[in-house]
């Protein structure tokens, strides 16, 4: 029997007892909005922006039939549903959108024929609801450039008619902050001035209309991460509280999110993205390990949210049949992740209790993808587990694989900390955080100065990270208002010889794996390029209200190493997942005694004589017990000895699990040796090979492994 896996394969098993439960739709808890991580389907990964009403409703029908029984209840149209699908239209094109007389977006009637006559998405929402599903869509920040150019009037949704205040009627140009355009869609949308009653009235008119259409879920884009707009998020959250129907409130994207930023929004929303867009590359998947760890450590998983709870969102699952980022094409290619990388992604998302939003084409849902999406153990963990966090007490070792070589080496190298490096990148975080107050000014000459970051790591080898400060240029008549607004603020340049200024938010839309080392573009009067050095050492950006930091990273920091996560099940069971992120085979070890460190208050000192079933579960070596939950657990030395030495080729001193994860190589297990030791061992079938190990302290452990030829 050979056991071979790829570099991204994780080892997943549960300790104590686990009673297999059938996956059922999540029940609605009255007054407990988003009590579980939301689950559903989103059109972006498979259709980009071009999906039609016919395609959407067909997809919703399949979700209802095949995925709703497993709790997938939301179907969400992603961005640009209001853009006409004609020649010249693309992500950042201008002049192709459908807007009503109040400057609000309306569905493109060419793609959404039921919207004719001002019906919006009313008919689509009714059909979705009749399938037992909930309906959602994507919206952008503020107001569209097209509405501003048309200077449409602002609707007073409370009194009716045009919004009036101070004896005048208000229009789009009165509330638009043209210098705060969405960085990755600068021709599309810009912020509104929420300090004005008219600005708040415009946002209220949007979300009241969405509720009238029957919307259950709103994905609000370009207001979080690098494009943080806390004022707009706050106003929208307040409007949603006033509505007659609950609407799930989601923020996107989450480029360079920090725990401090998350703490500013969690009480206002139900979901918030924590990375850039996640696509089907290993780098994008691996990029989620650090930020999910940081947010779990900050106790943000399932924290207080809008009318219920909130969840860090690790983005959609780009599995199955997909399109490409920003494409004008529909689904046309298969997911590029290996099956082991897909299992790794699904397991991490579940252990971190992320919302699960499938992004592939459900009309072409292959069997492996379907089984992964509906894995009952992972869905159980995602919905009902608690105390979810990274388990740091693991060690890993590369290199020799035989027992003699392992014992002779006598060393195990911890691979958990993989992000130490001299490479530094510019970042953003909440100004309430303690990290960003490391900036100071350095005068180089009469008209030349730098703003420098003083490293707090204590390393004497790192020179200060400096940017050149440039005074704002003399303003033209049309720019005088901007000069007054940005008094005391500066442009920052990478060198003193190039007229390229630092953008807080990148002009493109980075994916999860892309470290932003500083986006520089031609200098202009743009809040995205305006920076203010405060007396407390913070460097404040005018676009997002976030403060700059400098972070040390390693180019491949997120793509290598070993990781482990732990969680507690609702029946008292313990879940432990091992992840090998290395490109080579690695032995991973963890001690039972260390479980108590991660789970204070749990008694794990002795075995209670229960029967456990170890098995291969969709790419993972998994274990589950069929008996009721117990409070105590110990894997005795005799069991470990046989399990580690004979099967997994590695054992460290003391009571430790040692798990070998293999990449392109395989290791043979001598089934005759096991049969001699365990007479009850069954003959291998086409799908599994059973091994029984005996212990004087514990009952027998039936071991189920895949049978590879």
From TrEMBL:
Family as reported in the entry's similarity comment: Belongs to the glycosyl hydrolase 27 family.
Protein name: Alpha-galactosidase
The organism of origin for this protein: Vitis vinifera (Grape)
The reaction(s) this protein catalyses: Hydrolysis of terminal, non-reducing alpha-D-galactose residues in alpha-D-galactosides, including galactose oligosaccharides, galactomannans and galactolipids
Pfam families (UniProt xref): Melibiase_2 (PF16499)
InterPro entries xref list: Aldolase_TIM (IPR013785), GH (IPR017853), Glyco_hydro_27 (IPR002241), Glyco_hydro_b (IPR013780), Ricin_B-like_lectins (IPR035992)
Top-level taxon of the source organism: Eukaryota
Keyword field: Disulfide bond, Glycosidase, Hydrolase, Signal
Record has Ubl conjugation as a keyword: no
Keyword Cytoplasm assigned: no
PANTHER family the UniProt entry points to: ALPHA-GALACTOSIDASE, ALPHA-GALACTOSIDASE/ALPHA-N-ACETYLGALACTOSAMINIDASE
EC number(s) from the headed UniProt entry: 3.2.1.22
Span of the signal peptide: 1-23
